[in-house]
Automatic annotation (TrEMBL):
It is an enzyme of class 5 (isomerase). This is Replicative DNA helicase. GO terms for molecular function: DNA helicase activity; hydrolase activity. The lineage of its organism: Bacteria, Pseudomonadati, Pseudomonadota, Betaproteobacteria, Burkholderiales. Residues 192-462 form the SF4 helicase domain.
Length: 480
């Protein structure tokens, strides 16, 4: 009888001990580390959710930190390079040496599931932190050390809030600190000692309307009817940012293949008619020096193009993060165009899909700290009006475009809309800043050179077209 009681007691003690083992998943931790060493691109799927402190095993904390250091430095992270990094910090023996790293690299059940493995690691880490916080709260509740109930409750709530995925860090800033920093920046700007907080578009009048240019963290929507030049405007800005500002530029070209984007860029810089660029046999002897010069310039431009179609916001975000990680801070990101993007759930109504995209792009602009140019089509109804310059209500399918955008820019070319206009209208383009969250809306006169699909500043010596058609429209209250 006593033996049976002892056996039951031992079993109960074992069960209790098992229950007190902190939640963890060695398999998921090993899968994450192995997946990262086998495919560094997986970092873009897990790097935003994991820290080395989320791992349970001490060895795994060290290995993840080494992988993170290498990938964030744009260096390959495989078994050999991670081992070398650990040797450099004197921690190679702490993780079991090259043999254990090789074992981890082979421990990848399904490489495509690495984000789910990371989610499991994160979930277990949160549970461990919750257990630790609960123990501290219980200890404080048993021994308040003279603190009032309100103080004990407040401390308990603070501990729990710090565990929340949204509770890390303190991004609150007091007005007293903020205005002092702003005053210092304004003082430096006035003295010409501060770097600009904007990126010029290269179009002088548009930059004036935007108070200098595009700003980091803001979403710029360029809207127009097909063929009006919204892609050309975005590409003109992007090439300027890469060539003259020396900044990295990314373009999601879901409508045009990469080769077409390259052709347009070469035509812009060489001033050779696009049709001759596309058909090499049409090039003249005098074209070649300009063409080779343009190619040499473009080789120095940090301009990167992806022509993958039908991306949803999660896929686009992953690719944008990878571009940022590999090439550094972005001067701007171009998305061409909204209508070709999908929602994460294709079964949802289109209006909800677009709302998800615009909100996601606005969030991405803040995360990457770069301006995002989002191209969008406007409704066909604009063609039925005497004045065909679009208005905010013409943005197709979703009011979230207007709501989420910091700046909305419309492009209209009267000659395209009405080819029987006089030749003086051929190169004229009217651009409207229809919404500016921190500025004044207004109109800008630009030149559009269709032969090179390029937007330029309107020449100062050339008068703005003033034909009777334009005068008649202006007399009715329109701008064109």
């Amino acid at each position: 009888m006593n033996d049976r009681v002892n056996d039951d007691y031992l079993q109960l003690s074992s069960d209790i001990a098992q229950l007190r083992i902190p939640p963890h998943s060695i398999e998921s931790e090993s899968s994450v580390l192995g997946g990262l060493m086998m495919d560094n691109g997986a970092w873009d799927r897990v790097g935003d959710m994991l820290a080395d402190t989320d791992f349970y095993r001490a060895e795994h904390k060290i290995v993840f930190a080494a992988i993170s250091t290498l990938i964030n430095a744009s260096k390959p992270a495989d078994v050999v390079t991670v081992f070398a990094e650990l040797q450099k910090s004197g921690k190679a023996d702490d993780v079991g040496g090259l043999g254990y790293l090789n074992t981890l690299a082979q421990f990848v059940p399904v490489a495509g599931n690495v984000r789910r493995y990371a989610e499991v690691v994160r979930e277990r880490a949160i549970l461990r932190k919750l257990i630790s916080a609960a123990d501290e709260i219980a200890t404080t509740a048993f021994n308040t050390q003279g603190k009032g109930v309100d103080a004990v409750l407040d401390a308990a709530m603070a501990k729990v809030m710090q565990i929340s995925p949204d509770g890390h860090g303190d991004d609150w800033e007091s007005m007293s600190d903020g205005v002092v920093q702003m005053l210092d920046r304004i003082t430096d700007q006035a003295a010409g000692e501060a770097p600009p907080d904007f990126t010029p578009t290269g179009l002088v009048d548009l930059d004036k309307r935007l108070d200098g240019g595009m700003r980091a963290g803001e979403l710029y929507v360029i809207g127009a009817r097909p063929g009006m030049g919204k892609s050309a405007l975005a590409l003109s800005i992007g090439v300027h940012v890469g060539l003259h500002e020396g900044l990295n530029v990314g373009m999601f070209s879901m409508e045009m293949p990469k080769a077409q984007v390259m052709n347009r860029a070469m035509s812009m810089l060489s001033h050779i008619h696009l049709s001759r660029i596309k058909r090499g046999e049409r090039l003249k002897d005098y074209d070649w020096p300009a063409l080779t010069s343009a190619v040499e310039k473009l080789r120095q431009v940090n301009f990167h193009v992806s022509d993958k179609s039908g991306l949803n916001i999660n896929q686009l975000r992953t690719r944008a993060r990878a571009l940022r990680r590999r090439h550094g801070k972005l001067g701007c990101l171009i998305v061409d165009y909204l209508g070709l993007m999908d929602g994460t759930d294709p079964k949802m109504p289109r209006v909800y899909q677009l709302e998800e995209v615009t909100k996601g792009l606005k969030s991405l602009a803040k995360e990457l700290q770069c301006p995002i140019l989002l191209l969008a089509q406007v409704n066909r109804k604009v063609e039925e009006r005497p004045d065909q310059m679009p208005i905010l209500a013409d943005l197709r399918d979703s009011g979230s475009i207007e709501q989420d955008a910091d700046v909305v820019i419309f492009v209209h070319r009267p000659y395209k809309a009405k080819p029987d206009l006089a030749d003086e209208w051929k190169y004229y383009a009217k651009v409207q800043v229809a919404k500016s969250r921190d500025g004044e809306p207004g109109f800008v006169d630009l030149m559009y050179v269709g032969e090179n699909t390029q937007f330029l500043n309107w020449p100062e010596e050339t008068p703005i077209p003033t034909s009777q058609v334009r005068v008649a429209r202006a007399s009715k209250g329109g701008d064109l």
